[in-house]
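Before drawing any conclusions, I looked closely at one protein, both as residues and as discrete backbone shape codes, quoted below without any editing:
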Amino acid sequence: MATATNQFSPDYAVPPGWILKERLEAEAISQAEFASASMRSFPNTDP
């Protein structure tokens, strides 16, 4: 079986918070709902 190699080599970095924010918006989930689901308090999730 042939193994696949990852050819993606970006020349930039994206902060993980940007990706999370995009996913929350796409799923129509508020930061407060996400914080509750992940057992965190909301003020700690958005400094």
In short: The radius of gyration is 16 Å. The mean pLDDT is 82. The helical segments are 16-26, 31-37.
